[in-house]
Amino acid sequence: MPKVSLEQWSMLITVVEEGSFQAAADKLLKSQSSISYAMQKMQQGLGVKVFEHKGRKAVLTDAGQLMLQRAKDLIHAASAAEKAAADFAVGWEPQIGLVLNDMFPKHILYAALTEFGQQCPQTRLEIYVEVLSGVDDKLRHGEAQIAINHMIPSGMVGEPIIEMEFVRVAHPDHPLHHIGRAIHHSDMKLHRQIVIRDSGSYRRENRGFLGSDQRWTVPNMFEALELLKLGFGSGVLARSIAEAAIDAGELKELDIDGGGPSRSNMNLIFADKANTGPAALLLAKLLKEAAKNDKSGRM
């Protein structure tokens, strides 16, 4: 059995924070004698001197400094255990899964996760990043309860969360920029295209492919971005991903005949909304709020 109770550890912390036994007694609504007795019993149980008195102040010894940090750790662990029990009592799931399309803006995700971590610290969160139908796979296999993707799978419920813009780009020195007229699809087929591989197990969609015999396939938009900046071909990127490179002169939008930037909704999707637990519903709510409150314009 422990020789020191959690109440005594808590008193130790309060004495240090308040600066004296009397101030701690006032804070805890106890008598000074009860605080002094508890600290005396603590020191006897530990076998070390925790405090020494300098005037009216109680000052920690070197051993006391070490005990203070351990006391804070113990109180934090006890509070976390109580929070976990309370969460389970109201039905918080022990673990949930979130799967994202690779181009979903990360700053929106991080804003939502900041709030989720504070409000639901005991729920483990598995985050997956997939491309195209790979998002659907995670939902259908039960690995994720909520998703963000451009397509809503049949039988599932979803709603738009943000609208994203897509641009076809190439390095400023790429031959397509020097044709001297608006670019036709037939022009683009004559040059290498950088396309994004579908991470799904069954359906294979290649994002941005226009039928060129010259094709390099990469796992996500961020790899495509690097190849495009190096001048290896043309390809489609989310404006939020391409914007910095465009502003820096590393990429340039292609002047496509009859087709400028395209737009598409990203949807918040539930695998089974009727049976979605409170932690997953909270995360979905926070994602919607983060998207609504975003002022960056990076879409």
TrEMBL record:
<comment type="similarity">
    <text>Belongs to the LysR transcriptional regulatory family.</text>
</comment>
<dbReference type="InterPro" id="IPR036388">
    <property type="entry name" value="WH-like_DNA-bd_sf"/>
</dbReference>
<dbReference type="GO" id="GO:0003700">
    <property type="term" value="F:DNA-binding transcription factor activity"/>
</dbReference>
<keyword id="KW-0238">DNA-binding</keyword>
<dbReference type="InterPro" id="IPR036390">
    <property type="entry name" value="WH_DNA-bd_sf"/>
</dbReference>
<dbReference type="InterPro" id="IPR000847">
    <property type="entry name" value="LysR_HTH_N"/>
</dbReference>
<keyword id="KW-0805">Transcription regulation</keyword>
<dbReference type="Pfam" id="PF03466">
    <property type="entry name" value="LysR_substrate"/>
</dbReference>
<dbReference type="GO" id="GO:0000976">
    <property type="term" value="F:transcription cis-regulatory region binding"/>
</dbReference>
<dbReference type="Pfam" id="PF00126">
    <property type="entry name" value="HTH_1"/>
</dbReference>
<feature type="domain" description="HTH lysR-type">
    <location>
        <begin position="4"/>
        <end position="61"/>
    </location>
</feature>
<keyword id="KW-0804">Transcription</keyword>
<protein>
    <submittedName>
        <fullName>Transcriptional regulator, LysR family</fullName>
    </submittedName>
</protein>
<dbReference type="InterPro" id="IPR005119">
    <property type="entry name" value="LysR_subst-bd"/>
</dbReference>
